Fold these 4 entries.
Entry 1:
Amino acid sequence: MAFFKNIFSPSILAADHAALGEGLRTVLKYNLSWVHLDIMDGNFVPNISFGPQTVKDLRKIDGEIFFDTHLMLVRPDKFVEKFIAAGSQLVTIHVEPNYDVAGTLKKIRELGCLAGISLNPDTPAEKARALLPLVDLVLVMSVFPGFGGQAFIESAIPKIETLAKWRNGGEGNFRIQVDGGIDATTAPRCLAAGADTLVAGTAFFKAHDKPAFIAICRGEK
């Protein structure tokens, strides 16, 4: 049975976009090992965030923190090289758009980067099953991507449980990440279902007691 130490990856999308560097410094202040970078193209999701140059500039602030990059793009296959060159160490792509998903996952790994696959709330876990040997992480979206601060969608829990069952049955060796509506109530439920990597933006940056929130997201309290 696969076992991974729980990781909390704050989403910098919820930081002040006029001062993303300060947002990263806030993450670093709490000695967190991962930061989540949401990349949106305004087509696959109804919002636009930032591109490879921003990732490259954030990397100048710190060379050690793990860049967990989530590409919400219609054609992520056209951009993986740029984001890896900019400093991403994990690139997660979506299964829903029409492109060579398996080939893109293989390309990410060939470029020396970890590869992830993401599922929207209305996409069944089965859509990722054949890809599990090609990935290092499966991201379960527990909100529809595009905007922060949304409420957690309950269908994420059985999806996490299904992925954990497949992993424990030897169908892959991958982390299970959850993003969307993660707070002090939903984080423990996701961990209990089998997740080991939680993403939160709004709840982290607005938390009055960030160490306590981090501990909850790591399953430490």
Note: The radius of gyration is 16 Å.
Entry 2:
Amino acid sequence: MEAPQALDYRKFRLRLLNTPAYSHVKLLLFWPLFGLLFAFVERVGVTDVYTPVHIALDDVIPFCEWFVFPYLFWFVFLVGMLAYTFFWEVDGFRQMMWFIILTYSITMLIYFLFPTCQELRPQHFPRDNVLTRFMARFYAFDTNTNVCPSIHVIGAVACMAAGWHSRRFGTRLWRTVFTVITVLICLSTVFLKQHSALDVFAALPLCVGGWWLVYRSRWAKNFAQPR
């Protein structure tokens, strides 16, 4: 397996933004655009009426504060995988970013057209400890709207897909590690009552479609090439 080589960004200049070596940097523009849109739907809102998301499975899943750790690790997972591919595997960065752009854009469209919320958060925690106190504060900060499909799940799968197709991490061992991390993150969303299980199930078809288009279809190579 060919060892990935770091791209030397010391040579980067804005005039080189459209060159094959650095055109992928433009994909980073998606993040501020997405952040503004997400802040709008979360803080300003597109409606006063949200459809609650709930299925029977939610009622048998207990709250478990220990899932705080994989839930928060999502941020490290996402930023870490983006940073690694950005510096070491640019083709993988392009593919990961296109996976995110496609799936997140569709998710935002769904949030605009079909606003949802969840009403699963416990009124009283079953235990009093540092983790439940943290979740109480987290609930106060994080709204319970725009939940279906789950961006947390989609982002975790994006990292897993990038890892599975990485030249460095594409071994059986690393694929297993990435898969376990992704499963734990997905479980954390429902055990912390941040999402309904339906939000997870709704995210999976988007992930499968994004994975097929970016990594497996006859157009897949285009997503790894400079534009």
Note: The chain has a mean pLDDT of 93.
Entry 3:
Amino acid sequence: MQYLLTEARVDWDGLGRQLAVEANALLDGPDSVLILDESGFAKKGHASAGVARQWNGRLGKVDNCQVGVFATLCRDEMATLVDTRLYLPETWCQDAKRCDKAAIPDTERTFRTKSELALSLLTTARQRGIQFGYVSIDGG
């Protein structure tokens, strides 16, 4: 799994398109909801991509963590993750050496707010043809 996530050549966009097809087959329709939300993951150290002292809602406090923004398609009791974005703090975007060491692609080194990342997830879901009746988003 580590090799797949860090070194393997994967067509992530193609994987996302296929995931959209399969999610629609199970969950699409006017009663479906696309949920956009962030989540923090506590981390020690400073080398993991995007790790910084920032708000971690899972812990209810500012702590050393990574934060992701997620899109989930839901209907009734069923749900599936359909897309994700890593929140990259501004300090990371300004530190090319740190980004190089963490293997963050040049195209992803532009600072984006969590709201901008959520809008990107919504846009991508629409482009991939994911069907939903409405969108739910956290107050953040």
Note: Residues 19 and 27 are 12 Å apart (CA to CA).
Entry 4:
Amino acid sequence: MDQRNFIDFLKIVEKLKCNTRHSWTTSGRHESVAEHSWRLALMAMLCADEYPSLDMNKVIKMCLIHDFGEAITGDIPSFLKTDKHEDKEDDAIEKILSSLPNDKHDELKALFNEMEFMETDEAKLVKALDNMEAVISHNEADISTWIPLEYEENLRYGQETASFSEWTKELREILKQDSLKKISESKSQK
């Protein structure tokens, strides 16, 4: 990739640092899409030993790119996302990838396709960790940032994707217990 194309591409995806998510940080500000993707990649790196048969380099790449479309569309929380939103995000991903040289375009497009069809263990792990990163973020944030729907959502979000493996199922159960504790403590403080 020539340097100009490299810089131009980085300028497009820089918006991931600017666009915020529904989640809040412990310091009381909205989390950026880039921060979410970074921590998702870190989660994958840290649990790599649990999945020795997986191509963890591919998993980490998927984690880093999975929300590229949000550089253009912004974040739409999963509980509000419609098929129309998904289509716009797919179009945004293609627009972003089209700015890359053919070999990079094809490599990243293949990763997006793999994540969309969820037929590989790598894609399943990314989806499970992606869902759980959101739950972790909510558990870390002040409960005053939760909307009423999230009291139930935090207890069930990602359970289906976590069924991918015993390790992710156990992680999801721990997160559920953390959510229940947070909810209980907030009620006792009232």
Note: The mean pLDDT is 96.
